[in-house]
Amino acid sequence: MSTIAPEVSQHVVPDHVPAHLVKTFDFHTGLGNRPQEAIGKLLDGPPIFYSPVRHTFGPGGAWVVVGSDLVKAVTSDPETYSSTELGTFLAHFGEDFILAPLAIDPPRHTRFRALINPLFTPARMVALAPKIESWCNELIDRFEEKGRCNFIQEFADQFPTGIFIDLMGLQRDRVVEFVNWVRDFIHGETNEIRMSGVQRTVDFFDSVFQNPQDYPEGSMIRYLRDAEPEGRPMSRGEFIGTAFLLFTAGLDTVVSSLGFIFRMLAEDQALQAHLRDKPTEIPRHVEEMMRLFAPVTPQRRAMRDGNIGGVQIKQGDVLALCLTGASRDPSVFSEPDKLDPSRNPNPHFAFSTGIHRCAGAQLARRDLAIAVEIWLKRISPFRIAKDSAITASGGSVLVLDGIVLEWDR
């Protein structure tokens, strides 16, 4: 498992933090290969605590918010808890770089979110389904007869990435290269590796900004390049930041979900058989699996003093929103560690909540449901290979690094 050793100089607890609420936790270390289950155990303690280390760029610690009600309280108050913390690393590349709409607050957020929403309408996602199915079948064609595959490298990394690259109008033959950039950025073991991933991605979109004519009409790239969310063309930094967000979000979170979902299927032959017999139940099972394996921990920064769950938050404090823990909160979900596709409603946090709820949620749901359905149609009962080493990485997005699946040909 990937770990990041925080520097000792960062282990400083501010004076206003009560000693009983201090717990070192960085979402990287000691989570094993079932990180959601390990993080879920945080719910045995206080719903908010202070960790002297952070799991992302930047020195110092952060308040870790685990309880679902407290996560909602933070996300519903963008005036107090700003999302700009999420994009501060891009300031290294230019003052006007903004990770829009994720890392901006109202009223600018509203304008940039209105720019993004039309890219992911339900009608567009329905129309995209045949392309998703075709790409899924093409990938399975490559290893079906072998009777085994390295699932992450041969399928999970490739599948959602290829779809999103097509939407953006980028080159399909660069899938592996693009995936490596995003993995370095989100899961790199040092800040140098992470910043290297960011640099390569920024350089790429800088070239795109300078040469939009090289990309097809109707693609996301051309749409963003021609957009005027604030009554003028986007600056270089605004374009690169917005494209960077779409690019990284589209290439990592679905990859994460695929790994954990398919491990669950490989470990449960009865579940596989049930879904083969009743494929119409796949979407609701996928929804519940997304709850169980919610992978993301975004951040906020307090712009003024506040109070969360009776805990005093001071201006300047950073908060890490543990969407993984909130999705297993027993006050909301009965038997939270159990797969229960009958949950209705299922207000999980896999796509976050509030004004920054994931714009691409419908695309993610469609990708995952199609992947499960086609695998179960084409691949005989599959299992984890005896020689498979299963490893996971933590950080902003939890992900399986490797798992080998096998089946009888």
Description:
The chain has about 400 residues and is an alpha+beta fold. The chain has one domain (about 20-405): Cytochrome P450 (Cytochrome p450, Orthogonal Bundle), CATH 1.10.630.10. Helix content is about 40%, strand content about 10%. It has helices at about 35-40, 70-75, 110-115, 120-140, 150-155, 160-170, 175-185, 190-210, 220-225, 235-265, 270-275, 280-290, 325, 360-380, and strands at about 50, 60-65, 80, 150, 300, 305-310, 310-315, 320, 380-385, 390-395, 400, 405. A five-stranded mixed sheet has the order 1-2-8-5-3. Mean pLDDT is about 90; it is low at about 1-10.
Map the helices and strands.
Elements: H1 35-40, E1 48-51, E2 62-65, H2 68-75, E3 81-82, H3 108-116, H4 122-141, E4 148-150, H5 151-156, H6 159-168, H7 175-187, H8 191-210, H9 220-226, H10 236-267, H11 269-277, H12 282-292, E5 299-302, E6 306-308, E7 311-313, E8 318-321, H13 323-326, H14 361-378, E9 382-384, E10 391-393, E11 399-402, E12 404-407
Parallel strand pairs: 2-8
Antiparallel strand pairs: 1-2, 3-5, 4-12, 5-8, 6-7, 9-12, 10-11
